[in-house]
Design brief:
Elements (H helix, E strand, L loop, with lengths): L2 H41 L7 H22 L8 H5 L2 H36 L10 H5 L1 H21 L21
Helix pairs in contact: 1-2, 2-6, 4-6
Amino acid sequence: MSVTERLARAIDRLLDWTEQLFIGALSLAALTLGTMQVVLRYVFNTGFEWNEAVFVLCTVSAMLMAGARGVRENAHVRVDVIHMLVGPMTSRMLDLFAYAASLTLCLFYFYCGYLFVGFAKMMDTASPDTGFKDWAVYSIMPVAMLLFSLRYLLKIRAVLLGRETHDAHAGTPLSGSGDAA
C-alpha cells in the first residue's frame, strides 16, 4: 500500500470518527436542550433565554456534519437516471464533473465563510441570547465546508483510481466494454 493510499485512508478514518462523534454529541445535546425547554416551558412555565439559540446551533452543526457524512456514503442528492442511460466511462466522467463542481462550490463557501468570520471577529459582536461571540458561531460554516471539501477530494481520488463506480455500473469494467449503454 502506497503512502498516499495510507494517508487517504487515515484521513477518511479520522473524518469518519470525527463526524460520528460530533453528529452523536450535537444531536444528543439538541435533543436534551429541546426536551428540557419544552418541559420547563409547559410544566413549570419558565425556561432559559439561551436555550433555543443553542438548540438551533447544535441542530444545524449536526446536520452539516451529517451532510458531509452523506457525501461519504453516497447519500447525497444526485441524478441517477442519467447514469442508467450512459456507459460506465461516461458515468465516471459525469461523477468526476459533479464532484469537481461540488468541490469548487464548497471551497467558494469556505472562502466566503472565512472572510465573514474575519469580519465578525473584527466587529467583536456577541449574541445577546447566549453571549457567544458571533465569529465563533459563524465559524461553523467554513469548518463544515472544509469538511465537505475533504470528502469531495477523497471521492474524486476514488473515481480517478477506479475504486468508485456508480451503482448503475457496479461490476462493469471500464475498459474493453465500450461506452454504449
